[in-house]
Amino acid sequence: MSIDLTVMYAAHDAFRRDLERLGKAAADGTADTAGVRAGWANFTRQLHIHHTAEDSDLWPRVERRVEGRPRDVALLAEMAAEHAELDPRLTAVERALRDRSAELPCLVHALATTLDDHLAHEERSALPLIQEVLNPEDWAAFTGRIRRTQGLRGAAVFVPWIVDGVAPADRATFLGALPPPVRALNRLFWEPGYRRTGLWRS
């Protein structure tokens, strides 16, 4: 049975979208607004949760299944190295935002390029490997770690954050992958609350 990677791809797209928004705000000189700061804080939180769960609950499971396969073991080492490469770039953007540095646009561009390269590499090579060697129970353990870390309060931000500004077809695909009670909570409570936060509003 194949693994449903809908939420994984949607999260990747949301990370890319947020850095596009930050890049635009940096170019426009509006990165110091409360909405942009809140959007950046949420982006860094979501990325941290996502990559921490990959490092603790996803890649080790894959590694156990590819023992004795040097190319696949090397790929997992590349995933870890790419995560580590992001950390100083995130710190540099955080510092530039705090200091209102003129270097912010360049630093955001460097972060966006590094993250996009990593996500593309993961989508091109690591996700097909996951489909090959893991089963739905393995995947449920990984996504369960994310759900436990997020909690109900975190889910109330995560779900509307994913669909913020996406095309109707992509929105329907993502929401269709969620249980009906979650879709109802999102429609009735989570999205209205998310809109009131004004994330990325300059």
How would you characterize the overall build of this protein?
The chain is mainly alpha-helical. It has one domain (6-151): nmb1532 protein domain like (Four Helix Bundle (Hemerythrin (Met), subunit A), Up-down Bundle). 84% of the residues lie in helices and 0% in strands. The chain contains 7 helices and no strands. The protein has helices at 6-28, 34-65, 70-99, 104-133, 136-163, 168-176, 180-197. Helix 2 runs antiparallel to helix 3. The longest helix is centred in the first third of the chain and has 32 residues, at 34-65. The protein is globular. The termini are far apart. The mean pLDDT is 97.
Q: Could you provide a short overview of the structure?
A:
The protein has 202 residues and is an all-alpha fold. The chain has helices at residues 6-28, 34-65, 70-99, 104-133, 136-163, 168-176, 180-197.
